[in-house]
Amino acid sequence: MKAKLDCIPCLVRQTLRTLRIMNMDEKTQKKVLREILKTLYYQDWDVSPPIIAHNIHRKIRELTKIKDPYREIKMKSNYKALEIYNYAKSLIEKSNDKLLTAVKISIAGNIMDFGALENPNIEETLNKVLKMNFAINHYDTFKKYTFEKNKLLFFADNSGEIVFDKLLLETMNKLRDYPFEKVTIVVKGGPIINDATVKDIEYVDFSSIKNLEIRTISNGDPGTGPERNSETVKKWLKEHDFNIAKGQGNYEGMSELSNIFFLLIVKCNVIAKDIGARIGDIILKFHSNQL
């Protein structure tokens, strides 16, 4: 999807929040913010929001010399999610539809999004989401793919959230007669906001997922991986027969591609309007030429 005008002030707020997380003094905040406003002024807006965000956060890193301002927040998010892991696992084990519960728990983890929210409450969201119905519900197709497909490509979103993604993948493998032939996890190749990186995958420990491969997509810096709408990523999608993308950023960057399941919580009006839902809705959408 292309960026909308409402994306621009959102990116400015995101910039200011990032600078405050760095504990920058007000004089420095003003200086950096002015440069970001210049960047936004000259930026082509007829691109996806993640492309603009990449340019903004790359500029922030250049100006502040701080590579990973959300490092501590990401560590705390992973630790917090790991504390809840056993409780979430018990909910799945007691469920009459283990796959559905695991999907909803994974989606609940999408609340851990510091690009869109400042103080997400994972426990409250988890309990709420389990009682909700999908605003867009392609669960039957998702379930069919879980049992019939063999090569899974999974675009992760945020640190912390990936703990519940791991739980979903573990559940899917357990319900099948045999593990997926291949599971490819895609994370950012470098830090941007609280998006998951290879370090987060290693900390959370995905070793329980058999036949795992890790790939990276760009955070805006050279050498960190391809952009989400690149020919390389399109090739990845064709190499796999079951593609999942978590979160708003992946929806923004990949909604024009095909044969992808999008799992997310709607957290802004731009996404709500584009996807046809309301803020707070949970989405399990299969975007495909087949539907």
Describe the protein's topology.
Layout: H1 7-21, H2 26-42, H3 49-64, H4 71-94, H5 98-108, H6 122-129, E1 136-137, H7 139-148, E2 151-155, H8 161-175, E3 182-188, H9 198-204, E4 212-217, H10 231-239, E5 242-246, H11 247-254, E6 260-265, H12 269-275, E7 282-287
Parallel strand pairs: 1-7, 2-3, 2-5, 3-4, 5-6
Antiparallel strand pairs: 6-7
Describe this protein's structure:
The protein is built from 12 helices and 7 strands. It has 291 residues and is of the alpha/beta class. A 7-stranded mixed sheet has the order 1-7-6-5-2-3-4, with helices on both faces. The radius of gyration is 18 Å and the shape is globular.
Notable characteristics:
291 residues; alpha/beta; Rossmann fold; 2 domains; 7-stranded mixed sheet; 51% helix; globular
Task: Report the CATH topology name of the largest domain.
Answer: Rossmann fold
**Number of helical elements:** 12
Helix content estimate:
40-55%
CATH top level class name of the largest domain: Alpha Beta
Q: What's the oligomerization state?
A: single chain
| Radius of gyration over all CA atoms, rounded | 18 Å
* Low-pLDDT runs: none
The helix/strand class is alpha/beta
Do you know the CATH architecture of the largest domain? 3-Layer(aba) Sandwich
Task: Report the average pLDDT across residues.
Answer: 93
The helix-strand sequence is: HHHHHHEHEHEHEHEHEHE
Q: What percent strand?
A: 5-15%
Please describe the biggest sheet, giving its number of strands, its sense, and whether it closes into a barrel. Answer: 7 strands, mixed
Shape label: globular
End-to-end distance: 19 Å
Query: Looking at this structure, what is the CATH superfamily of the largest domain?
Result: Uncharacterised protein PF01937, DUF89, domain 3
Count all strands and give the number: 7
